Amino acid sequence: MARVAFRDVTKVYPGPVVALEGLTLDVADGEFLILVGPSGCGKSTALRMVAGLERISRGSIAIGDRVVNDVPPKDRDVAMVFQNYALYPHMTVDKNLAFGLRQRRIAKQEARRRVEEISRMLGIEELRKRRPGQLSGGQRQRVAMGRALVREPEVFLLDEPLSNLDAKLRVEMRAELKRLQDRVGVTTIYVTHDQVEAMTLGDRIVVLSDGILQQTGRPQDVYDDPANLFVAGFIGSPPMNLMKGRATGGSIAAGDLELPDMRVRDGDVVVGMRPEALHPVGEDHPGPGFAVLVDVIEPLGDEVLVHGSVDAAPARAGLGPDADEAKLLAGTDGDRASVTLRLPPQERPRSGSRLQVTVAPRDVRLFDIGSGLAIRPE
Amino acid sequence: MSGAIAPADEAPAALAPVGARSLPGETGMVERKRNRLLPFDPWHLFLFPLALIMLLPMVWMVVTSLETPSQTLHFPPVLWPGTLRFGNYATTIRQSAFGTWFWNTTLVTVAVVLSNLVFCSLAAYAFARIHFLGRGVVYFLLLATLMVPLQVVLIPTFLIVRDLGLIDRLGALIVPNLVNVFGIFMLTQFFSTLPMELEEAARIDGASRLSILVRIVIPLSLPALATLAVIQFMWTWNDFLWPLVTILTNQNAFTLQLGLATFQGAHQTQWHTVAAANIMSMLPVLVLFVAAQRFFVRGIATQGLKG
Predict the structure, then answer these.
(1) Can you list the domains of chain A with their CATH numbers?
(2) CA–CA separation, B73 vs A23, rounded Å?
(3) Distance from CA of B306 to the nearest CA of A (A)
(4) Whether residue B181 sits in one domain with residue B73
(5) A204 strand-pairing partners
(6) What number is the ipTM of this complex?
(7) What per-residue confidence (pLDDT) applies to B73?
(8) Quick check: A184 pLDDT over 50?
(9) Residues B290 and B231 in one domain
């Protein structure tokens, strides 16, 4: 096991296209770290640079105490699970598992013992004589995990390993993966674009966008206190509701929502509220609240998602005023901000109706409208 | 299978047995009716006579090889000689150095095929996967040599081979053909289609470049290698011009094709022995074709990927 240290790591592809810019990050020994972000945010590039499959344009990566910039993949003692598994199709499961051990000239007896142990651990003993072509997606996934684990690497790298499984299997494998990592305790870097995986699996998550680190922290902390509008819009499903507001004399107004005593400087702000922070109340409720014009309701069984709009200007979940139009994560409804509520299953407001909701001031997050950064109360 | 079948019909049609194939534009109803009238695809009515026409020269050669000399010269040709004279084959072998020719040709062909498999694989892997300075230029220059006809390089190559002291030796037939640019081209194209992740996985697993080539790339490229082997085998086995130029006087270094040419005299030709020798020289190619067929199946290279 080992820690991994990124120091100002930058990757520039010919073009030039900057895939990753100035990433500085420490992964502790035995930590389960999640790199999360939308497609093209540089998370896979970061992982591949740790594996040695991509050259580092600038900066350094250290595994343990050794800077590995110029160390070939085979000498880095890392193991990787690929998104499409990349099992050797002409070899049996047994040979797939043993390939890395044989390449490292590990004694036959020892190799066999390890292959047997890992097959038992992953429940793939009865598949050992089969070839990848004869396995289901879930079985291939297990074998791919086994091939990485059997090497007993210092660092375990996973590149969206669950993204090719169907939804049910993905949930199962997610739990199994967590159990496995707890048991093996090896330093793990896990890349995903799925924020449910990000929330559930890791000790710590790192949110990337456009090759730039946005926020790092424990999953719940990142969810509760997003560092900027991008994180607010990306982490959480459905994402945080965002609308434009204005701060005057310490209180904030966004449409018919009025929040007193927010202790922020005067000016335009973005007001963010998680869907579960909004609660329906009667028209005469004394606390801060606003009216939602209900558009669509989605009953999910255990909860109901209510999509609607409010009488406030929409805000975009991007970074800064130049945020790319394509990266609009918050939906907009003309000049009305869209809003989503998460309600208990028995509550089903009718489409087209007006719903008065309230929000506790401590559940409101504020962002600077120019920089997109979170505003902490003064 | 006809390419003109509507896309919606394509999948079931591809899975259906031969007899269930349909003509372009047919509906399922018509197809079923037609199939009750004929136990096979109506196209066969057209294709079968064509196949017969293609086969006729072969049949004629086999028949000729079993006839008497006078029957071979008879007009119209005798297509059924009555008595089959298998002794013609023994006579052919006895009267000529057939054994030596056969051995020489086998030696040259096996050496050329093996060296091509080895060298073309190595070169093709480098072109397909290793980024080195001037890769594109070198590859282009190599491909350009494919555009130059043999006749143009015949004399320069002959001079080189002569300077190497290989004239009248089997080495003259082997050395210039150790690597064939076509083989490099073909394997480069195939290697490029193999999933990159397999090699990346192997690199992380600790495999060297050579180990990746030998343990991952080659086993996944058996269909391409088998194809290359068969093509190269045919070219070398049937080559006539180059042996004719380089094997001048040494009859012990004759190949089959050179030997076969000696059967045709200036004044008379023993057609029954020519036919018998031709059939015997053709057999290895035929056998190889049939044997290599099982490798010409769809590759399995993508089966380890997502399911």
Answers:
(1) 4-224 (3.40.50.300), 232-375 (2.40.50.140)
(2) 87
(3) 5
(4) no
(5) A33
(6) 0.84
(7) 86
(8) yes
(9) yes
